[in-house]
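Protocol step 4 of 6: record predicted structures for both targets in the notebook before any analysis. Target 1:
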Amino acid sequence: MRIVIDTNVIISAVFFGGMPRRLIEHLFNDDFTAFVSPQIVQEYAETYEEVHKKYSDRGNPAILQKILEKSTVFIPQKEVAICRDPDDDKFISCALEGKCLYIVSGDNDLLSLGKVEDVEIVTIVEFLEKIEK
């Protein structure tokens, strides 16, 4: 199964654990394949740095590195302009062209779309329910 994971989920997993960390454990166990584009990787890294300034006692760059190593880098050839937050379109482009089934997000701008073509946009809870059945 192919998915795209939104930055907020990755950062929550790295810094705070909980359900986002559980999702990442499934990635580490090869329960699905995560796709990223260079723009997504850049956003992960930049957001990690911002959050690390605020929570310097938390966060482990090795976890972020392992997430990136387990992810498949994909360069979409077409950019979409669908989301009300244009910054989120990179996730949709990657998912559509990478033939992913899901985008896992906590972002209401993405979640409000529900589905774009064959890609469902779901919360962490919804995705965990699907893969932990």
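Target 2:
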Amino acid sequence: MPRKLEYREVVKRVRAQRKQVEVKTRRGKGSHVMLFDPECSAHYPLPHHGNDKRVIPSGMLKDLIRVFDLPEDIFD
């Protein structure tokens, strides 16, 4: 099971695997940002709240693995 990670570490690891993933700051609801992969039209909202140290829960990390077809051990 993935552990909890900070927002900036999550984005860094996702972009290392999928270079085409974009972070859209004006697309998410409220203080969320949208991770978007134009190659496969996948998108996922991440809470940001203007804080790069915001902790992303393990459930969201599992969703990111599924939505962006990432390796299972990317967040370990």
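Step 5 preliminary note on target 2. The longest helix spans residues 7-17. Strands lie at 5-6, 22-24, 32-37, 42-47, 55-56.
Proceed to step 6 after PI sign-off.
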